[in-house]
Design goal:
Helices cover about 65% and strands about 0% of the residues. It is globular, with a radius of gyration of 13 Å. Helix 1 crosses helix 2 and helix 2 crosses helix 6. The chain has a single domain, classed as Uncharacterized conserved protein DUF2267 (Globin-like, Orthogonal Bundle). It is mainly alpha-helical.
Length: about 130
């Protein structure tokens, strides 16, 4: 999947009014996800994405932090400067496109680093539901 496809899919699934809004959701979601992942996992995930998208994962080179799904959504809302319900919807849209863009093995590696409470974030069809 190339950059324009990724952004277009996020824009459609998040019902974003513009590509710029979709890019903001992508940046916020992936940078927060990178904060949660340990080791080389952000780089491994970024390697399977268009470089313009993968850079949001690579910008977070600090050590991994542990935080729950609710805190994940709150951080996305903060970075996106959006209210929490919108940020939840946008993050789920981004992750749904991410699921389509990377290999199942890489997705399994990401999910292996996250507690079970993150499972709803990765479930198909979850992009329209709140936490």
């Amino acid at each position: 999947m190339d950059y324009n496809e990724f952004v277009g899919h996020v824009q459609h699934r998040a019902r974003a009014s513009s590509a710029e809004e979709a890019i903001g959701s992508i940046r916020a979601t992936l940078s927060v996800l990178a904060q949660r992942l340990a080791g080389q996992e952000p780089d491994n995930l970024a390697a399977q994405l268009p470089p313009e998208i993968g850079r949001y994962l690579r910008q977070q080179q600090a050590k991994s932090e542990r935080f729950g799904l609710q805190a994940f959504f709150e951080r996305v809302a903060d970075q996106e400067d959006a209210d929490l319900p919108d940020a939840v919807h946008h993050a789920r849209a981004v992750v749904s496109v991410l699921r389509d863009a990377v290999s199942q093995g890489e997705l399994d590696n990401v999910r292996a680093q996250l507690p079970e409470e993150y499972d709803p974030l990765f479930e198909s069809g979850s992009e329209g539901q709140l936490a």
